[in-house]
Amino acid sequence: MKNNNFIFIITSLLLILPLITEAFIFRPFFDLLGKPLTFEKGIFLPACEQSCSLSASPTSGSAPLTVTFNVSPNSSNCSVSWNGPCTFNNFSCNYTYQNPGNYGPYRATVVCRVAGESFTYECSSRSITVTGGSSPPTSTPTSTPPPPPPPPPPPTCNPSCGNWSITGNCGTGGCPPTHRPAVRTCIRQDCSTYQENTCLPDPNNCFDVAVTKLDIRSFICKNNTPDISYISDYLSRNPNYQYPPSTTAATDYMNINQIEGKTILQCPETQRNRPVEFSAKGECNFGNCPSSKLRIFIKPEDISASPYETKSIESQFNSSYPKEVKEEYIFQNAYNYSVTACLVNNNNNPITDVNPSNNCRQFSLKVYDYYCRLGFCVQTQRDWRNHPLYEKTIQVLGKNDAPCRFWRNQICRARFGF
């Protein structure tokens, strides 16, 4: 019986002793240290520290600023989480701030596991202040700049020239009358351009027609010169001419004027009812001259008085050159007439060419009337209208006849029918 009680007491003590030891010895001791206890393998052990700390060094400085962060506890059975800029490795990490500013506060949480239990600790916060410091001057290493790239190869073109372009009229720009100045643009092998100038023949546009002769022959004139050769020529062809003039009288008249130094004769001139010969010639000087006709046109210089008449003498219209016309005409009316010979088109307009100044020729022909002196008809007469009155008186009383222009002597008409 006693043995059983002993065994019971020993067994009870073995069961109660750990409880008494943890309650009254270990726990108060560790509680004094501020560390929790855990029972593992029959022994009460401290589980983990009851708080953690987050440190930063340095906490302020000029950018760029490198800061080292550390956290504790740093036991292997603990892990860290936080809101900082780097990742902890062995409870430490570094971070470099490049820009000035205030960063944080940063907070860390440590979780420790002991004997299957988790213990969480909130660490104190940390803030970082970065100021705008000046970076130390750095020397720029001197280096030789790379050589410039080689220039591109020069362009290459096929040498060529464009078409000629006419720049002026016939005979201009130093060209002969049959040519026109022209220019064209050319390209060299290096693609630069230049201009060439030349004279191009243009026979279709560079041509020149000309009236090379206009002759007016009366009994006393050939153009601007006194001449009585036409009298004999005309009488040889017309022996039955009703009113042949006196050759001797005409010759005596011109001799008297030459001796006395007078310029009474105004060639070309004639009398009414006396034949006048008109002849002209037209030529193509150069180029492809167009078809034309040679035309002599006679018209009064002033139509304010009457009577007067007009006359046209023409060649055929064709492309052949030279062209010639010749015809005799007897005026019925005393007047001043314009005689013009031109090379014209079908509309009787002068041909347009490189030299219009020689396309026509012109004379002024004076046609006078007959008159009487002392009742006798005289065949020679002159225009004295512009002479002084005393000159007229001398002419009436002397060896020359008095003038009668733009009117017909009625006595002569009644006696001789003209």
* Binned strand content: 35-45%
Average pLDDT for all residues: 75
Number of helices: 5
End-to-end C-alpha gap: 213 Å
Shape, per Cα inertia axes: rod-shaped
Sequence stretches where pLDDT stays below 50 over 5 or more residues: 25-35, 37-49, 244-257, 371-418
* Radius of gyration of CA atoms, rounded to a whole number: 70 Å
- Specify the helix fraction band: 10-25%
| Major β-sheet strand ordering | 19-25-24-21-22
Number of strands: 27
Structural class: alpha+beta
Largest sheet: 5 strands, mixed
Structural features, described:
This protein has 418 residues and is of the alpha+beta class. Helix content is 17%, strand content 37%. The protein has five helices and 27 strands. Strands 19-25-24-21-22 form a five-stranded mixed beta sheet, with no helix packed on it. Strands 12, 13, 14 and 15 form a four-stranded antiparallel beta sheet that branches. The protein has a three-stranded antiparallel beta sheet with strand order 3-5-7, with no helix packed on it. The longest helix has 32 residues, at 2-33. The protein starts with a helix and ends with a helix. The model is unreliable at 25-35, 37-49, 244-257 and 371-418 (pLDDT under 50).
